[in-house]
Amino acid sequence: MSKRVAIFISGGGSNMRALVRSMTGDHPARPALVLSNTADAGGLEWARAEGIPTEVVDHRPFKGDRAAFETALAECVAPHAIDIIALAGFMRVLTSGFVTPWRGRMLNIHPSLLPKYRGLDTHARALAAGETEAGCTVHEVTPALDDGPVLGQARVPVLPDDTPESLAARVLEQEHILYPIVLRRFAGGDRRPVMLP
Known about the structure:
By secondary structure, the chain is an alpha/beta fold. The protein has a single domain (3-189), classed as Formyl transferase, N-terminal domain (Rossmann fold, 3-Layer(aba) Sandwich). It contains six helices and eight strands; from the N terminus they run E-H-E-H-E-H-E-H-E-H-E-E-H-E. It has helices at 14-22, 42-49, 66-77, 96-99, 122-128, 164-187; strands spanning 3-9, 29-36, 54-56, 84-87, 106-110, 133-140, 150-157, 194-196. It has an eight-stranded mixed beta sheet with strand order 3-2-1-4-5-6-7-8, with helices on one face. The longest helix has 24 residues, at 164-187. The protein is globular and about 50 Å long. Belongs to the GART family.
């Protein structure tokens, strides 16, 4: 039986779209929910057009009460009988209260070669440090920010005239390739890391 995947987004959902498009045929998973913390996230409309159930849990009314926000998230997810959560540009840090019950069943994609450059502004930080390569990482989510076992990485060269924007665009192309590969393997029970050149 296919695993049911919830994909969490905050914006246009380009990685969500790549994941959804990959979950066809003999794929061991199916998209069962797209959830956003913003009602105007562009990815929601796309998901609805694809016939995927959507939910919104706006973080703003919770005024910094992460526990209450995460309780609302959990209540939204529960009726959908989800097996795996894939964070795909979900711009909220989740605490151990939400993460721990999902440990081993939640993935995230991060735009750096972890453990380098956890958090935000990864491309600007990589350029400022003089890195010669950058990339992206899919990892299991743990209570520590951008930590957890690495399930896959893809690398891109840093070019002499790169800006944070140009580097981000090339890394994003690799994200759209890497994340679907890792999700397929993960849903099928294979957690060996995937390393793309």
